[in-house]
């Protein structure tokens, strides 16, 4: 029974030494001297502030993309024990001792190092030789720009890692498709494709380009499967459902999970939450939550409220009034009603308080029990401090003459009666009997007499002149002119009024509310709002010293100075390996020309290469040329500040194409022994030049050793490169 113990247990493993060597070299090239320089390098000043906010659990919004990449950088800080206390305000600032520089830069460096073996594996899965695969890996290994970008707290190396992982996973899955469908390894690589795609998109939206490419390739492969008569309808349906699960459902679920973790971690109020809605702000600890926590939920007749405009950009503001009146005549000669000004004020103020009044009653307090206001009810809005009624009439607004002026009514005993009735319309109602709720309800106020809608027009136009204290204009906009978020308001602060006397009511308006009712948003509501802000919130793009156009990238006519030593000539630049970039461009051109030639010849029934070689050529081009195109061409349509590092994902695919073209030329065009020998000699000389250029630019890739002025001038191979030289 125990006979198996007579012999030793033996485990046999196959180790690809090429792969192991590439992993080691990749790690050395990216991790060597990782803590140098111990100073803020270029965009570390941008990403570092988000890492600090993660450490302090303070909410933020970054319009550059989803949160997964930021969370990975923050993970490095967490593993290094970073407390978040560092002021990220200047490139070149020395890191204090509490900042774990090596740990913060570790994950991008590991991602960059692993791109080397991934490149090798991708070419192997594309059915090219191990020599070609090794060449692709070495080109990635010796590419100065990829090394520079992966050695700092930046996201491009992480993005490229997940992009390459997604491509490799899909290729492995596709190759298993032929002989072991629905096996464990088949499922593993299919699911990993979806996971890697979602991670790429979660790091930067640029990852969406490769995701779309792989979906297109998967769709094309499935289209070919439909024509396979050996597959039953049930089998085809199973394949379709498996791909839908792995390539669509799981990526969407993972994308949502990134935001779930992000929102779970960042539960404290901060400077960025002001652009969010009142409901979102109230869900965060501190900030608005301290003011609004426990407010009455249902707005009733007699409620004291502040009304925040939902649009919230370019700044948040609240419906406001003060004792000053509109000037009798404006600068352009137009007349006004000379009524009390109503504006939208971007700061919290006691003059932002209004009282919801029942037009049929005189009392300004909440009855017992409270009578809630519902969708469609008619109300009057009484300004809390001046007790004048919100009003609009057929008088042109000061800055928007095609809209109606909004004021608080003053009875001058002239032929201009008050028109102060407003119908409450709850925009996000579930039924026509919905109650108007604090924070949660988004409402429009429709003027009963003129059907004009209360609107904060100052978001679109300019602020009021000095007589209006530069506050934002509020107008009555005709409903027929369309719907806009500037017409929607929500109750932010709310209390049940108890004082009928004006002096007592003023004291009440200055005091905080203290009731205990929570208004937490669901995750999906918070996700939807945050996602919309990320997609629509755009910082003003300004010209940057190192910004460039997409056309500059192909020939590397630009560079970026990442860091300069404060006293010596040591510096770090984002500069590529000139030989590699040129070779990649030539390879792409040769591929397209050869493909066109082959297509024309095949149309004439002339087959220059075997069918198997043609299919290999096409599939490799679909991945490499397709990957280059989808990651490069969209930048010509983008209206944003562009930098050289935006080209790195496209460049990576282009580099993979170089050994593919070289192997194809060697196998199918160099047919004599002499030509093959000459071609091999040229390849040795060419690769030696790649290594030589890598070594030449290593001082500005790693930042050491420090170079003299003469040596720095010698590195300026193009007049458009900005190599920093100190004045003597």
UniProtKB/TrEMBL annotation:
Keywords: Endoplasmic reticulum, Glycosyltransferase, Membrane, Repeat, Transferase, Transmembrane, Transmembrane helix. It is a multi-pass membrane protein. Coiled coil: none annotated. It is found in: Endoplasmic reticulum membrane. It catalyses: a di-trans,poly-cis-dolichyl beta-D-mannosyl phosphate + L-threonyl-[protein] = 3-O-(alpha-D-mannosyl)-L-threonyl-[protein] + a di-trans,poly-cis-dolichyl phosphate + H(+); a di-trans,poly-cis-dolichyl beta-D-mannosyl phosphate + L-seryl-[protein] = 3-O-(alpha-D-mannosyl)-L-seryl-[protein] + a di-trans,poly-cis-dolichyl phosphate + H(+). GO terms for cellular component: endoplasmic reticulum membrane. Pathway: Protein modification; protein glycosylation. Its main location: endoplasmic reticulum. Its EC number is 2.4.1.109. Residues 296-359, 370-427 form the MIR domain. One of its GO terms (molecular function) is dolichyl-phosphate-mannose-protein mannosyltransferase activity. The chain crosses the membrane at residues 9-32, 68-88, 100-120, 154-174, 186-219, 240-261, 578-600, 612-630, 642-662, 674-694. It is an enzyme of class 2 (transferase). The keyword Chloroplast does not apply. Gene3D superfamilies: 2.80.10.50. Belongs to the glycosyltransferase 39 family. This is Protein O-mannosyl-transferase 1. It comes from Eudyptes sclateri.
